[in-house]
Write a structure and sequence with these properties.
This protein has twelve helices and twelve strands. Strands 1, 2, 5, 6, 7, 8, 9, 10, 11 and 12 form a ten-stranded mixed sheet that branches. The chain has a two-stranded antiparallel sheet with strand order 3-4. Strand 5 and strand 6 form a beta hairpin.
C-alpha cells in the first residue's frame, strides 16, 4: 500500500527557523509531503514550501529566515561584559523584541502605549505588515492553490471561539488567511476575513495534529509533526524564564492531550473493526449497527506519527519566541536539520502495522518518554 506523507507545523514565532532546518533534512531524503496542516509560523513555512517548485523550496525557506534575522548592535555594552551578559545573547533577544524582525513584524503605535492614560486604543503591540510583503516575494499563490500539496491553515474564529480551517481543497488561500493564523494576542493583531475576525490557531491547537489525522484515509500515512515547544524543561530562575516555561507548558500540553486522544480513538476504531469482522453476516447487515461498523472501517490505513519537539539551543535566553537575532536563528535551523536526520535514522523503516497507530516521539533529537 502507498505511504503518503503529512507534515504538521506548529506555531512559535522566531522558533520557526527550526522547522526550516527540519524540512531541509526531509527534502534531502526525498520525502515529499502531499498534505500540510499548519498554524502561525508553521503556516508561513508551509505556505513557502507549497508555493514553490520542489527544487526551490529549501532555498526560499532559507532566504525567508535570513531576511527575518535581526542583526544586533544597538544594545551592545562592550566586550568587557562577556558573551552571556546584556552585551551578548540577552541584548540580542531584547533588541529583537523591541525592534522586531525586518521580514516579519515591527512595533506599532500606540501599541503597548495604548495602556497608558490618555493614549488612543489599540489591539496589539506589533503589526505584521513586513510579513505580508515578505510572503508576496517568497511564494507563488497560484502554485500554492494549484493542488500539488494540499494545505490546511488553522485559525480561531474570534467571534465564536471555534476552530477555523482554510483548506486549499475547498477554496483559495491568500495572504490574509496566513496572517489570520498569526494573530496571537496581544502581540499580533487579528485579521478580518469576510466579516469574521480570526486569531492565531495556537489559541486552540498550536500543533494541529487532530486536524491532520481525523479524516479517514485508506492509505498508510507517515505524519511528521514539528512542535516548537517542549513539555520537559528545567527550573526557571528569572521572570523571563518563568514566562517562557508558562508558554511551553500551555502549548505543549495541548499537543500531548491531542496525541493521547488520537491513540485512544484509533485503538477503539480498530477494536470495532475486529469485532465487526467476527459478527455473522445477518448482524453486520443490521442498520442499527451500520454507524458503528462504519466508524471501525476508518482504521483501515496505518498511521505512523513522528513527533519532534524543539529543545533549546546554546544561545537561547529569555523571550525565546521573540529572539530573531541572526546567530540564534542559524542555531535553530541547524538544530532542526540535525534533529530530523537523527530521528529519521532512529526510526528507519519502522512503521505502524495495517490499521494501527504508532508513535515515535523525540525531543532535541533524542527519544522522548511517551505517556499511555
Amino acid at each position: 500500500m502507498t505511504e503518503r506523507i503529512t507534515l504538521v507545523l506548529g506555531g512559535g514565532n522566531a522558533l520557526g527557523a527550526y522547522q526550516g532546518g527540519a524540512y531541509e533534512a526531509l527534502h534531502a531524503r526525498g520525502l515529499r509531503p502531499d498534505r500540510m496542516v499548519a498554524v502561525s509560523t508553521g503556516a508561513i513555512n508551509a505556505a513557502i514550501i507549497a508555493g514553490n517548485p520542489p527544487e526551490q523550496r529549501v532555498e526560499k525557506l532559507r532566504g525567508f529566515w535570513e531576511s527575518a534575522a535581526q542583526d544586533s548592535s544597538a544594545f551592545a555594552l562592550g566586550p568587557a561584559y562577556g558573551p552571556m551578559t546584556w552585551g551578548g545573547n540577552r541584548a540580542r533577544a531584547l533588541q529583537s523584541s523591541l525592534l522586531g524582525s525586518p521580514a516579519v513584524f515591527r512595533p506599532r503605535f500606540p501599541g503597548a502605549l495604548s495602556m497608558l492614560p490618555g493614549m488612543p486604543t489599540d489591539t496589539s503591540i506589533y503589526e505584521l505588515d513586513p510579513l505580508r510583503e515578505s510572503l508576496k516575494r517568497a511564494l507563488d499563490f497560484e502554485r500554492l492553490n494549484g493542488g500539488e500539496i494540499r494545505l490546511v491553515v488553522v485559525a480561531v474564529d474570534g467571534h465564536s471561539g471555534e476552530e477555523a480551517r482554510f483548506d486549499t481543497a475547498e477554496g483559495p488561500i491568500g495572504v490574509d488567511h496566513l496572517l489570520a493564523s498569526c494573530g496571537f494576542p496581544p502581540f499580533f493583531p487579528p485579521v478580518e476575513i469576510d466579516g469574521r475576525l480570526y486569531f492565531d490557531g495556537g489559541m486552540g491547537a498550536n500543533l494541529p495534529i487532530e486536524a491532520a489525522l481525523e479524516e479517514p484515509d485508506p492509505d498508510n500515512r507517515l505524519c511528521i509533526a514539528l512542535d516548537l515547544f517542549r513539555r520537559q524543561g528545567g527550573c526557571p530562575r528569572t521572570v523571563g524564564q518563568a514566562m517562557d516555561r508558562q508558554l511551553e507548558l500551555l502549548l505543549s500540553t495541548q499537543t500531548w492531550r491531542a496525541v493521547k486522544e488520537l491513540r485512544r480513538v484509533h485503538a477503539l476504531r480498530r477494536q470495532i473493526r475486529l469485532l465487526g469482522d467476527r459478527l455473522p453476516a445477518e448482524l453486520r447487515a443490521d442498520p442499527a449497527l451500520a454507524p458503528a461498523l462504519a466508524e471501525g472501517m476508518r482504521a483501515e490505513g496505518a498511521v505512523t506519527l513522528l513527533l519532534l519537539s524543539h529543545a533549546s539551543v546554546a544561545s537561547d535566553v529569555e523571550m525565546r519566541a521573540f529572539d530573531f537575532s541572526r546567530p540564534v536563528l542559524t542555531e535553530r535551523w541547524e538544530s532542526g536539520r540535525a534533529d530530523m536526520e537523527q530521528a529519521l535514522h532512529t526510526v528507519g523503516a519502522r512503521r505502524a502495522a495495517p490499521g494501527e497507530f504508532a508513535l515515535h516521539a523525540f525531543s532535541g533529537g533524542e527519544p522522548a518518554e511517551v505517556d499511555g
